[in-house]
Amino acid sequence: MPTSSLSSTIYNPLYECMPRAELSALQLRRLKDVISRAFNHVPAYREKCRAAGVTPLDMQTLADLRHFPCTVKTDFRENYPFGMFAVPMEEVVRIHASSGTTGKSTVVGYTANDVATWAEVMARTMGCAGITRKDVVQVCYGYGLFTGGLGVHYGAERIGATVIPISGGNTKRQVTVMEDFGSTALASTPSYALHMAEVAQEMGILDDLKLRVGIFGAEPWSEGMRVDLERSLHVTAIDIYGMSELIGPGVSSECECQCGLHMFEDHFYPEIIDPDTGEVLPPGSTGELVVTNLTKEALPVIRYRTRDISALTYETCECGRTMVRMERVTGRSDDMLIIRGVNVFPSQIEDVLTGIEGTAPHYQLHVRREGTLDELELWVEVTEAVLKDDIRSLETLSRRIMADIHSILGLTCRVKLVEPKTIERSEGKAKRVIDHRKM
Ligand code: DLL
């Protein structure tokens, strides 16, 4: 049951530099506690444990966790809306939701302590990005049931920064506010940040903005996109990661070294598994990230299969933080496209495009089945400058894209070059894949 001690820790950067032995001991204590709470208060989880033949008493060392059953997104659907909660509703002070695998959304809840924990891990995220109380943080993540807006908001307030809770949309107004209020930190999806940069450019004020840092997440993005964001907005682009089921944003964040995302391991315990067999893989291996929420009271989630593909490194970072780093997410084990037997991640395509002059980082993958064969058609926006070129140069550009994709993925695709700003812009997550095979 809820204990007030769980989230009484005050934001303290030293927490993130805890020696490994001390951290492991803390994790084990918290794992035993959270498994007991899920077992005792969430019938669906108790059922899963029974089926797997384990009880909380089987959790004696960190390595024992692998014997416990995983939680998956469909558990939320089957127990919709509040069946995964471990506390009575009187103790739940906040609800958020995200898209489910089908129809019904995934509903998550927070006690007052959970909201405080969330503010703390988001305050650490701010610290990782070098954001301080002197910053003016423009929060363009959506406010509402999505966790992005309020998550960043509470963390930024917790460190004493000035928060502009503008939410997503109305891009010209965003840019005007950015200029007039002197925003120094931008919080948005990376694709929306690029769109804001385009609009600021059109309005002729891009170079007058005071932005110096951006905290970008909620969708996969590439190193190439980082270069574009840093160049166009004159910011340090920091990758932040999280998901509703675990808390929202605040699970992990890059620091200013930009070499992997530190996971706040006193609250989240990570494993990497083989997505096909469920086997736990050794540090450094690439696989599906599975995370146990160590301190959440309303919704203790054990071994959540994130479907996100990453890898973990336990080497201490140059910044001094000892907390494990996860590699930037390269895709999801369930959004991976298989086209004529080739595994394709949209982020790989993006990497190819960002290395090709004349293309904008806006693209869409259209997958169709023609006869028995899958066909990939890649729609790519070209830059204004390229439009002025003759038809031959455009053909050369298409051929170059096809060749580069072929050499990296071993996949032949068709390329359709489209005019600037014709691919629909999103104020949240960009829609990169249109899989006509599933319709
Ligand atoms: O997207 C929480 C969030 C808000 C994170 C704002 C960062 C910033 P969900 O809507 O539940 O929560 O979606 C979670 O989004 O499993 C990943 O597949 C993807 N995702 C989130 N952050 C990143 C990132 C929020 N930095 C799902 N890189 C996750 C790649 C990300 N994918």
How would you characterize the overall build of this protein?
- This protein is 31% helix and 24% strand.
- With 439 residues, the chain is of the alpha/beta class.
- It has two domains: 1-257, ANL, N-terminal domain (Rossmann fold), CATH 3.40.50.12780; 337-438, ANL, C-terminal domain (GMP Synthetase, Chain A, domain 3, 2-Layer Sandwich), CATH 3.30.300.
- The strands form five sheets. A nine-stranded mixed beta sheet has the order 4-3-5-6-7-8-9-14-13. Strands 10-11-12-15 form a four-stranded antiparallel beta sheet.
- α1 (20-41) packs across α2 (43-52), α7 (190-202) packs parallel to α8 and α9 packs across α11.
- The radius of gyration is 22 Å and the shape is globular.
- It has helices at 20-41, 43-52, 73-78, 112-129, 147-158, 171-180, 190-202, 223-233, 346-354, 384-387, 391-409; strands at 94-98, 106-110, 136-139, 162-164, 185-188, 213-217, 236-243, 248-254, 261-263, 268-273, 287-293, 304-310, 312-313, 325-326, 331-332, 337-339, 342-344, 359-370, 373-382, 414-418, 433-435.
- The protein is built from eleven helices and 21 strands.
- Residues 1-11 have low confidence and may be disordered.
- Bound molecules: 5'-O-[hydroxy(phenylacetyl)phosphoryl]adenosine (DLL).
- The site of 5'-O-[hydroxy(phenylacetyl)phosphoryl]adenosine has 20 residues, from α5, β7, β8 and β12.
